[in-house]
Amino acid sequence: MESMCGGVPIISWPFFANQQTNCRYQCNEWGVGMEIDTDVRCDAVANLIMELMEGENEKVMKKKAQEWREKAVKATKPGGSSHDNFDALIRDVLAPSRHGHNFDAYLF
What we know:
- It is built from five helices and two strands.
- With 108 residues, it is mainly alpha-helical.
- The protein has one domain: 3-Layer(aba) Sandwich (Rossmann fold).
- It has a two-stranded parallel ribbon with strand order 1-2.
- Helix 2 (19-29) links the parallel strand 1 and strand 2 (33-35).
- It is elongated, with a radius of gyration of 20 Å.
- The two termini are 29 Å apart.
- The model has no long low-confidence stretch (mean pLDDT 86).
- GO terms for molecular function: quercetin 3-O-glucosyltransferase activity; quercetin 7-O-glucosyltransferase activity.
């Protein structure tokens, strides 16, 4: 996510947890990255880097990454979806409940 928020294309090497899902979206759905093959070799990684920086898809991936960056910036500004959702989370967790629950006991 940091790469996309920075507007930078990604080289992914998924290993565990949500990395496979993130890689699939970055490479196949969003078009902002390339995946390292499971047989990782120095020359293969170097070729991917060159393709990402100077290859035929380089401009397309950079443009898409920049578009995602702009969406991330917009979402985190006041009035943006991430900003509003975070505010709602804080209100729901920290604000006194209408049902008399005291959530202060759960805060460390």
